[in-house]
UniProtKB/TrEMBL annotation:
GO terms for biological process: amino acid activation for nonribosomal peptide biosynthetic process; monocarboxylic acid biosynthetic process; secondary metabolite biosynthetic process. This is Carrier domain-containing protein. SMART domains: PKS_PP. Residues 214-239, 367-387 are annotated as: Disordered. PROSITE patterns: AMP_BINDING (PS00455), CARRIER (PS50075).
C-alpha cells in the first residue's frame, strides 16, 4: 500500500482503548494464545488484502538468551521472518492457527543469526534498508516501573521519526488498561494519512475478528461503511438536447464566432441557418431513428451536417477522412446508415465508393445540396422520449479486439456536454483546438461542449495534428486557450515548449489529458513549462462517455490520480466478489449511472460487462452498471488512483504481477521517455519473463540519459530480485500507437535476447553456452546475452549451478547467478573461482545449498 516517492520518516502513536483491550484479553484466555500472535494474525490479514500474493511475511524480534540471563545481560534479540500462506479464503481462526504454528516453528531456529539467513538467500542489499524486513511487528514484554523520589514520571511519545529498520514498524505495548503503541514508517513509502489509515484498518479487522473469528478473511471489514454516492441524475432529465441548446445560443448571440479555420469562419447564426436547411433535406429521406455517417474533415460543414442529423432525428456517426480500412467497412456493414454525408467530391474516397457501390448506400455531398430555407413553423416533434433517443454511435478503438458500437442517448450527451462546458470553462471567449480525430468519442465531447458553452472551435489542420513543432507554432498563432490530447503526445509537445522562451509558448488556460495513464513526471514538467495553464486528467470508457476527473492544482506524485466521479456517475471499486474494496485496496472500477449505454450495437442483451454486481441496489429506473475491466484503488483523501487493466495481470513464476505497476515504476525513471511492458511465454504458454520496450530520454546532444543497467537497477530497487526477469528492448523514437493514441502492443517488434552480438570466445564461455543450450533449448548465445532474456528463470538457477559444478569443479553461489546473469558474467565467476577447466568429476563442497543429481 505504498504511496510516496520521497519523504522523511514518520511516527504515529496510537491507543486502542480499554474496551478493545478487555476483549483481546478475554479472547486470548479462551483460545489459549498470546496477544502477540493475535496481533500478528490481524496484521498479516490486512497486508494480505493489500497484496497480490497469498504469501505474507512479517518480521518479529525475539529474545535469544535463556531466562536465567535476565537481569545479568542487556536485551539480545534476533529477527525471525514469519511467512504465512493465506490462500484458500481462510477464516480468522485459521489465520490465527497458521500464525501460531508459524511462530512456533520459527522459534525453534531463533538462534540462527538473521544475517546468516540473508547471506544464504539471493536478496538485494541496500544501505538504507534491512533485507527481508518490509514489515516488523514488536510486542515487548511489560516494562519495569521507574521510580524517582519526589518526581512524578510519565512516558511521553516520540513525535519525530528517525530512520526505520523496515518500511513499517508496528510496536504494540500492553499498557493496562489499554493497548497502545507506535507505528513508524518510511516517508518515502507512505504518506501520513495512508500509514494512519492502515493502522486503523488493523484495529477495525481485529475488532470484527474478535466478535466472530470464524468469519472468512475476505469478509472481515477494514473500513467503515462507504459514504453513499448518488448515481441517479434527475436534473439531467430536464436538459434540452445539445442541438436545441446550440440553437438557443445562436438566437441570443448570432454574430458570435462558432468555428474558425482553413475552411472559413462561421458565426453561430450562420451555423444554425445551414444546419436548419440541411435538416430539411434529411427529413425528406427520411433519417429519423437511423444512423447517418459523416465523413468529413473537422470544420464548419462537419458541424452543420452533425447538427442537421440530430435535428432530423438521426443517429450521428463520425468518420475521419483518412483510410478507414477494414474497421470503417465493418462499422458501415453493422450500422447500414441511411446515408453517408461528405463535403465535396473526392474520387479517391474508397470508403464512400465501397458504401455506395458494394453496400448500396446513399452518398450525399452537403455542399451541393440547394440551400433551402428552414421550416416556416416549429420543427416536427420526434416520437418517443427525447432523452432516451439515440444521439450518436461511437466505436471503441478495437486495439484489444473487434470494435464495439456504443449508442449514447440525448440525455447522456447533453448532461456531459453541459458539465464539460461549465467545469472546463468553454464559454464565450474560449478558443478550443479541435485536436481529437473524428472517429473517437472525445472529439464529439470537445466539439459539442464548446458549442453548448458558446466558445469558438479551431479545427487543427491534419498535416500538423501530430507534428509537435508545427502544432505548437499553430497554438501560439491562433491564441488557443484549450487543448485536449493524450499524455504520450503531450510529452512530445512539452519537449518543444520547454525549449522555447516563455514569450513564444502557447497561452493555454486549460490542458486536458485523457485516454492513458498520466505520469507525474510529465505533469510536473508541464506545470513548469506552462505555469499559467490549468491541467486536468479525465478518465472514462466510451460506454460511460467519461467517469472521473481530477483538476491538478499542485505538484503530483509518480502516479497522477484520476480523481473523483463526474456528476451523475457513481464510481465504485469492487473486489472479485462484487464487494466494495477497502481504502487502499485495488479492485475493478465499476460505474453506476443513468448515463451508461444500454449495451453494444448489434449484440445480444445481457453482455457481462453490463451485469449489475450481486447484492448491489439498482438505484431506480434507468440506472445501469458498467464493469470497465480497469483496476484502481481509492486513496485516503478519497481520490481514485488508476492501477492498470485486469487483463494485463500475469503470473510470473507463480506470483501475480500487474504489468501497469512495472510500467509505472519504469516510467518514473529519469532516463525513460515512455515505455510499455509485455509478458513473454515459453512453448507451454507459461510466462517466464517480461520485456520492457523503452524509448530513452535523451540529452540535448542526443545521448541517452540512462540505459539498461540503470533501468534494471531502478526496478530491482522497487520490486527486488524478481526484476532480473525483465529484458529490455530500446526503441529509438516512439512506441507504436493506434489511431486513438493508445499503445498498439500488436505492432511492437518481437523481443530479442539482450545481447551485443559478440560470440563466446573463451573456453569457459563456450562451455557455458553449451550448458545454457541444454537448459534453455537454444542453439546460439552471444557472450552478453542474459540468462533470463534468453528464456531462463529463477527455478532453473539451481540446475545451472549444479551443471557448472559438475563441468568445472567449482561452486558458484545461487545469488551470484542473479547478479552476474550474462554469459560473460557467469564465465567471469567461474574463472574467479579458479577452475577454468573441464571436469566430469563432481567436486566436494561444503555448500549446504548445492544441488545434487537427485534433486535436479
Amino acid at each position: 500500500p505504498t504511496t510516496r516517492p520521497s519523504a522523511p520518516a514518520g511516527l504515529l502513536p496510537f491507543a486502542w482503548g480499554t474496551a478493545l483491550a478487555d476483549r483481546l484479553a478475554a479472547f486470548c484466555r479462551t483460545r489459549e494464545v498470546s496477544p502477540a500472535v493475535v496481533l500478528l494474525a490481524a496484521l498479516q490479514a490486512v497486508l494480505h488484502r493489500y497484496g497480490d500474493d497469498d504469501r505474507v511475511s512479517v518480521v518479529v524480534p525475539v529474545p535469544v538468551l535463556p531466562p536465567e540471563f535476565t537481569g545479568l545481560v542487556g536485551p539480545c534479540d534476533n529477527l525471525l521472518v514469519l511467512c504465512a500462506d493465506l490462500g484458500g479464503a481462510p477464516t480468522f481462526t485459521e489465520v490465527l492457527d497458521r500464525a501460531a504454528a508459524g511462530f512456533r516453528a520459527a522459534t525453534e531456529h531463533r538462534e540462527l543469526p538473521f544475517d546468516r539467513l540473508v547471506q544464504a538467500l539471493p536478496v538485494d542489499r541496500h544501505p538504507d534498508r534491512v533485507p527481508l524486513c518490509d514489515v516488523l511487528l514488536a510486542v515487548p514484554g511489560p516494562e519495569a516501573e521507574l521510580r524517582l523520589a519526589g518526581a512524578d514520571l510519565r512516558a511521553a511519545a516520540v513525535r519525530d521519526g528517525g530512520p526505520t529498520v523496515a518500511d513499517l514498524v508496528v510496536t504494540v505495548r500492553r499498557t493496562w488498561p489499554s493497548v497502545t503503541g507506535t507505528l513508524a514508517y518510511r516517508g518515502d513509502r507512505f504518506e501520513p494519512a495512508s500509514a494512519a489509515g492502515l493502522l486503523g484498518q488493523v484495529r477495525t479487522l481485529l475488532s470484527a475478528a474478535l466478535d466472530d473469528p470464524d468469519t472468512r478473511l475476505d469478509r472481515l471489514p477494514l473500513d467503515g461503511p462507504p459514504a453513499p454516492e448518488p448515481a441517479d441524475d434527475p436534473d439531467s432529465a430536464h436538459l434540452p438536447p445539445v442541438h436545441e441548446t446550440i440553437r438557443r445560443h445562436a438566437d441570443r448571440t448570432p454574430r458570435a464566432v462558432a468555428v474558425a479555420g482553413a475552411d472559413g469562419r462561421w458565426t453561430y447564426g450562420e451555423l444554425e441557418r445551414r444546419a436548419a436547411a440541411l435538416a430539411v433535406h434529411l427529413r425528406a429521406l427520411p433519417v429519423d431513428g437511423a444512423p447517418v455517417a459523416v465523413r468529413m474533415a473537422p470544420g464548419p460543414w462537419q458541424l452543420a451536417a452533425s447538427l442537421a442529423i440530430l435535428r432530423a432525428g438521426g443517429h450521428l456517426v463520425w468518420f475521419g477522412t483518412g483510410d478507414a480500412g477494414e474497421r470503417g467497412r465493418a462499422v458501415l456493414t453493422e450500422l447500414r446508415p441511411a446515408c453517408l454525408l461528405r463535403a465535396g467530391e473526392d474520387p479517391g474516397d474508397e470508403l464512400a465508393r465501397w458504401f455506395r457501390d458494394d453496400l448500396g448506400g446513399r452518398v450525399l455531398d452537403v455542399t451541393a445540396l440547394p440551400e433551402t430555407p428552414g421550416p416556416a413553423g416549429p420543427e416536427p416533434t420526434l416520437a418517443g422520449d427525447p432523452g432516451r433517443r439515440t444521439a450518436y454511435v461511437a466505436y471503441t478503438s478495437g486495439s484489444t479486439g473487434r470494435p464495439k458500437g456504443i449508442a449514447q442517448s440525448h440525455r447522456a450527451f447533453a448532461q456531459f456536454a453541459t458539465w464539460m462546458a461549465g467545469a472546463l470553462e468553454l464559454g464565450p471567449g474560449a478558443r478550443v483546438a479541435q485536436w481529437v480525430t473524428p472517429e473517437h468519442d472525445p472529439s464529439l465531447c470537445e466539439v459539442f461542449a464548446t458549442l453548448v458553452g458558446g466558445g469558438t472551435l479551431h479545427p487543427v489542420p491534419e498535416r500538423i495534428r501530430v507534428h509537435p513543432e508545427k502544432l505548437v507554432d499553430w497554438l501560439v498563432r491562433e491564441r488557443i486557450t484549450f487543448l485536449q490530447t493524450v499524455p504520450s503526445f503531450a510529452r512530445e509537445l512539452l519537449a518543444v515548449i520547454a525549449a522555447r522562451e516563455p514569450a513564444d509558448r502557447p497561452a493555454l488556460t486549460r490542458l486536458v489529458l485523457m485516454g492513458e495513464a498520466l505520469p507525474g513526471q510529465l505533469v510536473n514538467g508541464l506545470r513548469r513549462a506552462l505555469p499559467a495553464t490549468r491541467l486536468s486528467n479525465i478518465y472514462g470508457p466510451t460506454e460511460t462517455i467519461a467517469a472521473t476527473w481530477y483538476d491538478i492544482t499542485g505538484p503530483v506524485p509518480a502516479t497522477v490520480p484520476i480523481g473523483r466521479s463526474i456528476p451523475g456517475r457513481q464510481v465504485l471499486v469492487l473486489d472479485e466478489a462484487d464487494r466494495p474494496c477497502p481504502t487502499g485496496v485495488t479492485g475493478e472500477i465499476v460505474v453506476r449511472s443513468p448515463h451508461v449505454c444500454d449495451g453494444y450495437v448489434g449484440a445480444a442483451t445481457g453482455h457481462p460487462a453490463f451485469r449489475a454486481p450481486a447484492g448491489q441496489p439498482d438505484g431506480g429506473t434507468g440506472v445501469r452498471w458498467y464493469r470497465t475491466g480497469d483496476l484502481a484503488r481509492r486513496r485516503w483523501d478519497g481520490l481514485l488512483e488508476f492501477r492498470g487493466r485486469r487483463d494485463l495481470q500475469v503470473k510470473l513464476l507463480g506470483t501475480r504481477v500487474e504489468l501497469a505497476d512495472v510500467e509505472a515504476a519504469l516510467a518514473a525513471h529519469d532516463g525513460v521517455a515512455e515505455c510499455v511492458v509485455v509478458p513473454v511465454t515459453d512453448r507451454d504458454g507459461l510466462v517466464v519473463r517480461l520485456t520492457a520496450y523503452v524509448v530513452p530520454r535523451r540529452r540535448p546532444d542526443g545521448t541517452p540519459v540512462a540505459g539498461v543497467s540503470g533501468w534494471r537497477a531502478h526496478l530491482r530497487r522497487r520490486f527486488g530480485t524478481a526484476m532480473v526477469l525483465v529484458s529490455f528492448e530500446t526503441l529509438p523514437d516512439r512506441l507504436p500507437r493506434t489511431v486513438a493514441g493508445k499503445v498498439d502492443r500488436r505492432r511492437l517488434p518481437a523481443p530479442r535476447s539482450a545481447s551485443t552480438g559478440r560470440i563466446p570466445t573463451t573456453t569457459v564461455e563456450r562451455a557455458l553456452a553449451e550448458i545454457w543450450s541444454e537448459l534453455l533449448g537454444g542453439e546460439r548465445f552471444d557472450a552478453e546475452a542474459t540468462f533470463f532474456a534468453a528464456g531462463g528463470h529463477s527455478l532453473l538457477i539451481p540446475q545451472l549451478v549444479h551443471r557448472i559444478r559438475r563441468r568445472f569443479g567449482v561452486t558458484v553461489a545461487l545469488r551470484e547467478c542473479f547478479t552476474h546473469n550474462t554469459l560473460a558474467g557467469m564465465a567471469a565467476l567461474v574463472e574467479a573461482a579458479g577452475a577454468a577447466r573441464e571436469s566430469s568429476v563432481p567436486a566436494e563442497s561444503a555448500d549446504l545449498r548445492a544441488v545434487t543429481d537427485a534433486m535436479e
